[in-house]
Amino acid sequence: MAMNNVGRPSAPIAHEAAAPTTFSGARGLLQPTSLIFETGSIERTGVDLPPTKGLKARLSGLARQTSTGNPGLSEPEAMRHYVRLSQRNYAIDLGMFPLGSCTMKHNARLNEKMARLPGFADVHPLQPVSTVQGALGVMEQLSHWLITLTGMKGVALSPKAGAHGELCGMLAIHAALDAAGQSHRRRVLVPESAHGTNPATAVQCGFVVDEIKAAKDGRVDLDDLKTKLGEDVAGIMLTNPNTCGLFERDIRTIADLIHGSGGYFYCDGANFNAIAGRVRPGDLGVDAMHINLHKTFSTPHGGGGPGSGPTVLSDALAPFAPVPYVIKLADGKLDLVEHEDDSDGQPFGRMVAFHGQMGMYSRALTYMLSHGADGIKQASEDAVLNANYVQACLKDHMSVAFDGVCMHEALFDDAWLEGTGVSTLDFAKAMIDEGYHPMTMYFPLVVHGAMLIEPTESESKASLDAFIASMSGLALAAKSGDTARFTGAPYHAPVKRLDETRAARKPILKWAAPITPAQIAAE
Ligand SMILES: *Cc1c(COP(=O)(O)O)cnc(C)c1O
What are the residue boundaries of the Aminotransferase class V domain, all occurrences included (predicted)? Predict the structure, then answer.
């Protein structure tokens, strides 16, 4: 069999259809599994409790008479059900996850180990502060390093996701404008290429969104920006590096223009992993920026895992940070400022019931301390180097959306697919057959048929070479008319093409028991 340059057998088309179907429904070691309701039965249970003796029911006749309808499974049945499902899942622990904008980097086991220490994992949010000095210490140190890395004045730790952090920053801007008698400023400028959460956040805060055009080079169109400035502008929401994976090189000018017209500069910091340790957003004139701890500082995410979006704030906005926050008392002890009245500033309110995601704070701090200043800088540099390596190796096979070097993401458009009968979606499905989670597709919207690839610093050169070999193999196949490889893909996945529109619009979220012959007979 022919081998490609990374020692993988080069692909003859071996469509699954050629393989015999199995009697068990398994495909090799991949086991079949049905829904949990169809695996267990309501009448059975995996738990064997002795009958209660001598206890008086205290529910005064309110005890449930009917079954809860939960399936009863033995422990091995339950275990196998979930492990089999997990085999159908893709994970960063399984292979490269090039999903652009999401920063699917390796989650170091050391972070997990620290987060699971009972002192962090079992801490209760209502414990007296005298008993959680260590946990508050982690929050205080994390705040210190976030402020140091970003060159800002303060940080609100409590927001629970990037989008929540955006809300925090924009509410701080809202409060600052109101405090300055500038409540007529309600227009927020947002570039066309922005992540959808940016305009959504602005609207959620009661602002009106005004779109700024992208220039031909994928960056903010300065001339368009200038025409949009005015007395009613509250600020701008800008991502840097932007969602096209490019550094906004006029960022200082943009900051000056916004400040000059009386507005604030919100920076979407989801892409901070490209510049952490190299650039301090505070030096660029940023007033507020959220940091996705789960992206830049590595916490498992994407499968509904927790998020955390601390928001760093400039001198002008720091006084408006929400409660609660940690302070150091004169005797060196730490305390939480819980109420607006106890604050020296003018908090705009509170965003969460308690203090935020303890597990993520300990993971992020572990990541920072284990990397050190040089390691954080190197991680950013390697993320950028890896993306440029991918771009350079694929640019002759696929069309690069914007010329020149990129930051941490390589962005391609679909011009190179024209006339092949293969779409961006088809190409992504064929990547699944190759064993890769597809890249981000059709985002940013300013690029036609966009394919956004973010390898992150986690990938070795060997792993990037294997990915590039698959991608260029697919690109050649598309151009040479092997259309079926794409339009019928994925051939090797447990589920094939889904009706994605229907799945999004009319999802079936609840299992309904099939009607049994006995029920039919009873009617
Ligand atoms: C991920 C991301 C967000 C939103 O962050 P969440 O933590 O998912 O809420 C916002 N902007 C950009 C550019 C992102 O990549």
Answer: 180-302
Residue closest to 479 by CA, chosen among 409, 387, 396: 396
Separation of 162 CA from ligand 1 center, angstroms? 5
pLDDT at 4 over 50: no
410 touches 467 (CB < 8 A) = no
Non-local CB neighbours of 168 within 8 Å, separated by 6+ positions? 156, 158, 159, 288, 290, 309, 311, 322, 351
Tens digit of each residue's pLDDT (9 = 90 or more) over 96-146: 999 999 999 999 999 999 999 999 999 999 999 999 999 999 999 999 999
Task: Name residue 452's beta-bridge partners.
Answer: 411, 440
Nearest CA to ligand 1 atom 14: 270
Query: Looking at the predicted structure, is the pLDDT value of residue 519 above 80?
Result: no
For the Cβ of 293 lying below 6 angstroms from any atom of ligand 1, the answer is no
**Looking at residues 145-153, what average pLDDT do you find?**
98
pLDDT tens column, 470-513: 999 999 999 999 999 999 999 998 888 988 899 899 998 888 87
Report the candidate in 396, 478, 393, 474 with the shortest Cα–Cα distance to residue 434.
474
pLDDT score of 136: 97
Q: pLDDT tens digits for 32-88?
A: 888 888 887 777 777 788 888 888 888 888 988 888 878 888 889 999 999 999 988
Residue 406: left (phi > 0), alpha (psi -120 to 50), or beta?
A: beta
**Residue 165 in contact with ligand 1 by CB distance below 6 A:** no
Give the pairing type, strands 208-212 and 187-191: parallel
Peptide bond into 125 cis (omega under 30): no
**Of all protein residues, whose CA lies closest to atom 3 belonging to ligand 1?**
162
Give the end-to-end CA distance of the chain in Å, rounded to a whole number.
Answer: 63
Comparing CA positions, the residue from 71, 88, 72 lying closest to residue 30 is 88
Give pTM, 2 decimals: 0.90
Q: Which CATH class is domain 110-367?
A: alpha beta
Ligand 1 pocket, mutate which of 292, 293, 407, 439 (most atoms under 8 A from CB): 292
Domain residue spans of the chain: 110-367
Closest CA to 445 of 101, 196, 100, 249: 196
On whether the CB atoms of residues 126 and 285 are closer than 8 A, the answer is: no
| Cβ atoms 248, 220 nearer than 8 A | yes
Q: Interhelix angle for 133-150 vs 358-394, to 10°?
A: 30
Q: Which DSSP letter does residue 183 get? A: T
Tell whether ligand 1 has an atom less than 6 A from the beta carbon of residue 100: no
Instruction: Please report, for residues 86, 143, 224, 336, 371, the alpha-carbon distance to residue 172 in angstroms, rounded to integers and kept in the order given.
Output: 41, 18, 26, 20, 32
Percent of residues in the chain assigned helix, strand, coil, to nearest 5 = 40, 10, 50
Share of the chain above pLDDT 70, in %: 96
